[in-house]
Amino acid sequence: MKKAVLLFYCLFLSFVVFAEDGYQLWLRYYLIDNKNLLEQYRAAITGIQINGNTPGLEAAKEEIITGLSGLLGKKIPLQKEFTTGTLLIGTPASSNQIKSLSLPQLQKTGDEGFSITTLKRNGKNIIAIAANTDAGVLYGVFHFLRLLQTHQGIQNLSIVSVPKVRNRILNHWDNLDRTVERGYAGFSIWDWHKLPDYIDPRYKDYARANASIGINGTVLTNVNANALVLTPQYLEKVAALASIFRPYGIKVYLTARFSAPVEIGGLKTADPLDHQVQQWWKDKAKEIYQYIPDFGGFLVKANSEGQPGPQNYGRNHAEGANMLADALAPYKGIVMWRAFVYSGETPEDRFKQAYSEFKPLDGKFRPNVMVQVKNGPIDFQPREPFHPLFGAMPQTPLMMEFQLTQEYLGQGTNLVYEAPMFKEVLDADTYAKGKGSTVANVIDGRLDGHTLTGMAAVSNIGTDRNWTGHLFGQANWYALGRLAWDHTLTSEKIADEWVRQTFSNNTTLLNSIKSIMLSSHEAMVNYMTPLGLHHIMGYSHHYGPAPWWDKAPRADWNPVYFHKADSLGIGFDRTSKGSNALAQYTPEVRKRFEDISTCPEEYLLWFHHVSWKYKMKSGRTLWEEMCYKYNEGVKAVRAMQAQWAGMEKAIDKERFEHVKMLLNIQEKEAVWWRDACLLYFQTFSKMPIPAQYEQPAHTLEYYESLKFPNAPGI
Ligand code: GCV
């Protein structure tokens, strides 16, 4: 009887521990399933030598022990002596052994980089994971574990890795009541009510996951900010989170509501040039640093979409940002001031407004201010040209803002691997200082000699067991970290790493999942917004198609403002004959987009109002091409479904079914987007949907009648 109970208990435990619900992310550390490789690894790693007991080194030690015992299926002992196969880990300060190696590469690794080197010590082959700081050591440990997880050879290692960007940050749009703006993975993981006394184990796993991909900062709160988070009641809670994240090299940041001096400070104004207001922020900064000595700083959305800002007092963005920067400067804090501004009262093309406001302020910001710019000029659309501010403010460090949460990319149900979209922008050439002035080189500081650099992304994390709602959302979180560390990595390489760690190293499976991922972004662009269409989604909740919508309280929230379809054609003329937004780019970029014959077709309707009968490169008319692209999008999703179905036997049931059901939803939504958009645009083109394509199952009136008052994420 006892035995049976024990057996049941063991079975239950193994189910709990090994259930493939996605919680473990890419840090699964399962036994290496290739026998030869396992033997090689076991022979090459026989002991761990890691001295020092700082929280950072303790975290590194715990991770390497956990990782190796899982991957190698046995406990690797901690050692004081060297044997063949010792893994020597540390900094010159923590380890005399590391110090005595005098590794020349540590001169290049700075305060976050690391080296992993195969060496001979006392006649024995050892591997040294070395860095100048605890954070560097931790990054090195995670990198080493990744080599094993992805089945790489570990003979003759000579790796030196240094992040290209200094601040690698997640922006949580999380509210204090735990709702998440544009969140599709449950509620906020920050349990404010129970903090600071209740520490959810997730906080540590969150920190581990971020550290494993090099993310070193987290903005805990929504940019549509609540001043309450700056009160002692909440600062105590923030401090508790900061102490969990600190060993993992992660700093916390908060969003600063510009009107906080009025709302929680009792002042009559929040004017940045008012001495009392300035003093209030200085005192607030001092107070924050008493709670959190390594507080990172503020992220600010000001004078945008109803948020208060310096313009309420007739001041400009630099005056607002500088006031906060002065308050943070004594503690080395930074301000990330967002350039996502546009005003309902301004008749200027929304595309142009951020540039118009910020370009004249170049050189006017304090050295500890970064201007955080969204990847494109409108708002995280499926495909946007790069933001014209990149390359246009050489005296100001510009920070990239991507969006992981798929607000406009199918929200919680569509499989869209975002790395190709991020790369498209990072690799775009601004020509700011001649050919090769890529967006990546603007934000990594190389182009204009900035050392304060950063890349951020709006988080897609929530309380769902698998963190991101859609399992493949994890790949986007992963990709952000990897690209912020090294923007030269390819989308393919990042997908490869993620699939190997998350699913399997089996080549057939690997290639199949990768091919789904790598085709997914283009598929989505095709079934939602092909040929440069943008901002044609449902009003406010942004769910599904609504190109017909024209009832928003401001013109530039209406799809009709963006596509401008009429009997002649479709698209927003941003050439010199139209809004002339193209003048905000350098002449080389402008020229290419301005000339319809050189404008890449994927950006066509971003910049041109094009006749329905315009001949595309394919020989089809624009209308036919649109029908073709929408159908290609649907076709690609069906191909993804078929590919996934073919992997049923190779993937655990739980994750297989999860993705399969979501792909079914994605297919339905792709068809919905295609049919609703084609029927609507057809009212202008007056041309038939060619007979070779599936015809819409419903009328346009049907699609227009659909309502989603409870869509998530609002
Ligand atoms: C946080 C878009 C989103 C808003 C978001 C805003 C921003 O407009 O729909 O939810 O607000 O971007 O980036 O500030």
Features of this protein?
single chain, about 725 residues, alpha/beta, Chitobiase, domain 2, TIM Barrel, Alpha-d-glucuronidase, C-terminal Domain, 3 domains, 8-stranded parallel β-barrel, 5-stranded mixed beta sheet, 22 helices, 15 strands, about 10% strand, binds 4-O-methyl-alpha-D-glucopyranuronic acid
TL;DR?
By secondary structure, the protein is of the alpha/beta class. The chain has helices spanning 2-18, 35-44, 55-72, 96-101, 134-149, 201-212, 232-245, 260-263, 275-291, 317-328, 350-358, 419-426, 439-443, 473-485, 491-502, 507-528, 559-563, 587-594, 604-607, 622-645, 653-685, 700-705, and strands at 47-50, 86-90, 114-121, 124-130, 158-161, 167-171, 217-219, 251-255, 297-300, 334-338, 369-374, 398-403, 454-458, 569-570, 610-611.
Describe the structure in your own words.
It is a single chain. The protein has helices spanning 2-18, 35-44, 55-72, 96-101, 134-149, 201-212, 232-245, 260-263, 275-291, 317-328, 350-358, 419-426, 439-443, 473-485, 491-502, 507-528, 559-563, 587-594, 604-607, 622-645, 653-685, 700-705; strands spanning 47-50, 86-90, 114-121, 124-130, 158-161, 167-171, 217-219, 251-255, 297-300, 334-338, 369-374, 398-403, 454-458, 569-570, 610-611. The strands form 3 sheets. It has an 8-stranded parallel barrel with strand order 6-7-8-9-10-11-12-13. By secondary structure, it is α/β, with parallel strands linked by helices. Helix 9 (275-291) packs across helix 10 (317-328), helix 14 packs across helix 15 (491-502) and helix 20 runs antiparallel to helix 21 (653-685). 39% of the residues lie in helices and 10% in strands. It starts with a helix and ends in a 9-residue tail after the last helix. It has 3 domains: 22-161, Chitobiase, domain 2, CATH 3.30.379; 167-501, Glycosidases (TIM Barrel), CATH 3.20.20; 526-572 and 609-705, Alpha-glucuronidase, C-terminal domain (Alpha-d-glucuronidase, C-terminal Domain). The longest helix has 33 residues, at 653-685. The structure holds 4-O-methyl-alpha-D-glucopyranuronic acid (GCV). 4-O-methyl-alpha-D-glucopyranuronic acid is lined by residues 173, 181-182, 223-224, 301, 305, 340, 379.
